[in-house]
Specification:
This protein is mostly helical. Helices cover 79% and strands 2% of the residues. The protein has a two-stranded antiparallel sheet with strand order 1-2. α2 packs across α3. The chain is elongated. The chain starts with a strand and ends in a 5-residue tail after the last helix. The model has no long low-confidence stretch (mean pLDDT 87).
Length: 160
């Protein structure tokens, strides 16, 4: 898993996972504080996973890294939606804590059964697409910027 044709993917996967978890938690925390789901957070999750994958790959980007960023952006969005549902469910029932519900099999099953309700609106799909675009483009742009910086610094190096 670590290396495929000279491309390291183990650390970028770890970076994407960390970004997805943090992004999902931030999404749910903002939804809990505002009592409103802010779709722009999905785009930020895409950007965050893209940056994390780049940082954890030492700026050596291949297409597989873009795919990793996109997959973890989707994981972060899914986690954010799930944690938001868990939070509002715990508020509704009052006597159940968020931590109890997060790993509750009934809660997970209910979320899976009603999955389409959480992602079925056109605006949800728009923000998901924008998150995917962010996650895909950021690694490529950062890699090009890094290569351009490296090339320009070698152009200005003193010559013997």
């Amino acid at each position: 898993m670590e290396e495929k044709q000279g491309v390291k993917i183990g650390m970028p996967i770890l970076g994407g996972l960390i970004a997805a978890i943090l992004g999902g938690i931030v999404w749910a925390a903002i939804a809990a504080m505002t009592e409103y789901e802010v779709g722009l957070i999905a785009i930020l999750i895409g950007a965050l996973t893209g940056y994390a994958v780049v940082l954890f790959s030492n700026k050596r980007i291949a297409t597989v890294h873009k795919v990793i960023a996109v997959l973890f952006a989707l994981v972060g969005i899914l986690l954010g939606k799930y944690l938001t549902v868990v939070y509002f469910t715990s508020e509704l029932f009052g006597d159940v804590s968020v931590m109890e519900l997060v790993f509750d099999n009934e809660m997970i099953s209910a979320f899976v059964e009603t999955f389409q309700e959480y992602f079925g609106q056109p605006i949800d799909l728009l923000f998901i697409v924008l998150a995917i675009v962010s996650a895909w483009q950021i690694p490529g742009r950062m890699a090009r910027t890094s290569l351009a910086t490296d090339a320009s610094s070698s152009d200005h190096a003193p010559r013997a």
